[in-house]
Write a structure and sequence with these properties.
Number of domains: 1
Helix content: over 70%
Distance between the termini: 44 Å
Number of strands: 2
Length: 288
């Protein structure tokens, strides 16, 4: 419970930051596309400029649901649990702690976790998190296999579905519309193929961005800002607001878990921390 409580806190913060970053990248690409569409209206080049209708725009943004939320979050939780176990595993439940000691524990957890999260290589953490306490050679081999397969699933593949999946989802989405149009006319098929190609080009750009050093710097900055906000909130609500100086770790554990739940319900402060990062602003400006 101790490990899960601290892991939940960090996983909640990290997940919200990643979702916020993902949406910012996608909205930046989409808004630029729509701006160019409007700028090209009435021009000679505008006649052949690719256009995203409302259905295509909604489809593009819906890829968020098929990306990190279903592909990457499980791996992220695995690596966070693994690192948290090493960080707070020896913290005695009977020990009393104060706000400054809690702050030091949280900062140490951030120091160990952020670089691994930013790198995107979560295979080792997931493998360690799933290892049994009585490792056998067979389990070790299985773990290594798992680690290798997960390591390949880096940022560019964990944030968004594969190109094949995107095409399949688009075909499934427009199939009914095409059939309703009295037979799949060549014009309709051509139009839908062009739209799929345009959406894929936007996805490809996002994949390129998340492989860049600029994304790593922006994500690091966003994570540190968001964790500072959580750290301040934790020490304030668990100690300052209650006007206490000491708290047994046994009481701190459920209190911290409840605080993580509150953050997930009301993530506005963390989203604001991401938005206020100069590195994040710079990244989206360069994308535009």
């Amino acid at each position: 419970m101790k490990v899960l409580s601290f892991a939940r806190a960090f996983a909640a913060v990290v997940s919200l930051v990643i979702v916020s970053m993902q949406m910012r990248l996608m909205l930046t690409v989409l808004s630029r596309q729509l701006f160019l569409e409007r700028a090209m209206e009435g021009t000679k080049r505008g006649a052949c400029w690719p256009v995203l209708d409302m259905q295509a725009q909604e489809f593009f943004l819906s890829l968020v649901e098929k990306g990190f939320g279903t592909r990457g979050v499980e791996q992220l939780v695995g690596v966070v649990k693994s690192i948290t176990k090493k960080s707070v595993g020896d913290l005695a439940l009977s020990k009393s702690t104060n706000a400054e000691e809690l702050r030091l524990v949280l900062r140490n957890l951030r120091k160990q976790t952020v670089p691994t999260v930013v790198s995107g290589d979560w295979g080792l953490g997931v493998a360690e998190a799933t290892k049994s306490t009585d490792d056998t050679s067979e389990a070790t081999n299985s773990t290594n296999d798992t680690g290798n397969s997960i390591k390949e699933n880096n940022w560019d593949t964990s944030l968004l579905p594969s190109d094949d999946d995107v095409r399949a989802m688009w075909r499934a989405r427009v199939e009914t519309k095409e059939n309703a149009a009295s037979g799949d006319s060549n014009d309709s098929i051509k139009e839908n193929t062009q739209t799929a190609d345009l959406v894929l080009s936007m996805v490809t750009e996002i994949r390129a961005v998340v492989r860049s050093p600029g994304f790593a710097m922006a994500l690091t900055s966003a994570l540190e800002n968001a964790w500072d906000v959580f750290e301040q909130r934790a020490t304030h609500e668990l100690f300052v607001q209650k006007e206490i100086t000491q708290m047994p770790v046994a009481k701190l554990v459920p209190a911290l878990s409840n605080l993580s739940g509150d953050v997930l319900k009301k993530p506005e402060s963390l989203f604001a921390a991401v938005a206020s990062s100069p590195k994040v602003v710079q990244l989206t400006r360069e994308m535009w």
